[in-house]
Automatic annotation (TrEMBL):
Keyword Transmembrane helix: no
Family matches, as InterPro entries: AB_hydrolase_fold (IPR029058), Peptidase_S10 (IPR001563)
Protein name per the record: Uncharacterized protein
Coiled coil feature spans: none
One GO process term, biological-process aspect: secondary metabolic process
Length: 445
């Protein structure tokens, strides 16, 4: 066989190089439109995009996201980068259970693919939202090497910033949109840091473009180490216990004190959940042997969470979402088995820094949440020591009190959501949509 000629060899090497560059480019950032989803009848009546953005050294961290375009004026409406708490809970939770355009139909699981229906109170009616799976390993995000798998708070925040810049670079039509960083629960630690990292990047003068950061949004946010002490105050104030009997609250549903206690779906480690040869269906039946409530298709609220496991682990769903084959095993809503380290225990200094720079913020709390009770949120806001510009008052929806609110001189609005739990939009979607719509439009609640 004749040896290849020099010109042929050069052409072959050039072709391989171009293919390699193309593959690396696709790995660094890929996105696809999703027009149909299994379980939803007909084409989606909103624009959904999913994809990956590679960050960190050698793009070894591949961050998965869901982008839902605003249904009003996407080129003008705010852009929200949404981080679900946990830590290590998939942002799909925020999309499907809280503020996104879809819900699972509330029917008990019967072995078929769960059904999706529209959420009439989706925040995407007037905002573009990027739901991001962070930290690495959460949801469909993954690490290409074992070295890239472990992460911690500050690293997560840097990765969120790099993700956003790369995403905007690929979607330049949104660079000038007002940007807000949002999240709930544990994201009370990370969201203020991400906002500060974005702000610092703008001020550094080394970035290709400035991000139009306007502020941040936090629901039921974990914030500082003394949070637990306020559970006693909350429990006593609600007439649940005397201070001496605080340990008795262990039998309550801490996410919403009026609902029955079936435990939270903060999933156990994968080896404990999917051990041996037991399938997801078998484990599901073992964990959920309750009878149907006469008032609801679900005996427990967590029954609704488990529908996401059956839906997200269906091969047709993964194909529709353009999930890379072989990149992840079983999808887990809140994966507490990830090598993630919480190193920041107090995010109040970041609120102070952001306040000094003039960024606005919305902090809201479901008033029946005992995981992060509203008195603790009131306390750390009070500790910031900003003057009150709009004193404590009720805010209404349809002429009824939906909660109470107060506004401070640092452009921070605090609101309680009456009857809301952890987190508020899941329990009171209409009220939370009204709250968000007014605040994002610079209107009083």
């Amino acid at each position: 066989m004749a040896a290849p000629r020099p010109k042929q060899l050069c052409f072959t090497l050039l072709l391989l190089l171009l293919v390699s560059i193309q593959l690396c480019s696709q790995l660094a950032l890929s996105h696809s439109l999703v027009k149909f989803l299994p379980g939803f009848q007909g084409p989606l009546p909103f624009e959904l995009e999913t994809g990956y953005v590679g960050v960190d050294e050698s793009e070894d961290v591949q961050i998965f996201y869901y982008f839902v375009k605003s249904e009003t004026k996407p080129r003008q409406d705010p852009l929200i980068l949404w981080l679900t708490g946990g830590p290590c809970c998939s942002s799909f939770s925020g999309l499907i259970y809280e503020i996104g355009p879809l819900y699972f139909k509330e029917v008990r699981y019967n072995g078929s693919l769960p059904t999706l229906e529209l959420n009439s109170n989706s925040w995407t009616k007037m905002a573009n939202i990027i739901f991001v799976d962070l930290p690495v390993g959460t949801g469909f995000s993954y690490a290409r090497t074992s070295r890239a798998a472990p992460s911690f708070d500050l690293q997560l925040c840097d990765q969120a910033h790099h993700f956003l810049r790369k995403w905007l670079n690929a979607h330049p039509e949104y660079i000038s949109n007002p940007l807000y960083v949002g999240g709930d629960s544990y994201s009370g630690i990370t969201v203020p840091i991400v906002a500060q990292v974005i702000s610092n990047g703008n001020e550094g003068g080394t970035e290709q473009f400035n991000i139009n950061l306007k502020g941040y949004i936090l629901g039921n946010p974990l914030t500082f180490p003394d949070e637990d002490n306020y559970r006693i105050q909350f429990s006593h104030g609600m007439g649940l216990i005397s201070d001496e009997l605080y340990e008795c609250t262990g039998t309550l549903n801490q996410a919403h004190i009026l609902e029955i206690n079936c435990g939270l779906d903060y999933s156990p480690k994968p080896l404990k959940l999917f051990n041996g040869r037991r399938s997801l269906d078998e484990r599901f039946q073992e964990l959920h042997t309750h009878k149907t409530s006469p008032l609801s298709a679900f005996y427990c609220r967590v029954d609704g969470y488990w529908l996401s496991y059956h839906w997200m682990n269906d091969e047709s769903v993964r194909e529709a979402l353009h999930v890379r084959k072989g990149s992840k095993g079983t999808w887990i809503r809140c994966n507490q088995g990830l090598p993630y380290e919480s190193v920041i225990l107090d995010s109040r200094p970041y609120h102070v820094n952001l306040s000094r720079k003039g960024y606005r913020s919305l902090i809201y709390s479901g008033d029946h949440d005992m995981l992060v009770p509203f008195p603790s949120t009131q306390a750390w806001i009070r500790h910031l020591n900003y003057s009150i510009v709009d004193e404590w008052r009720p805010w209404n929806v349809h002429g009824q009190i939906a909660g109470y609110t107060r506004t401070y001189s640092n452009q921070m609005t605090f609101a309680t959501v009456k009857g809301g739990g952890h987190t508020a939009p899941e329990f009171k979607p209409e009220e939370c949509y009204a709250m968000f719509k007014r605040w994002i439009s610079y209107e009083p609640l």
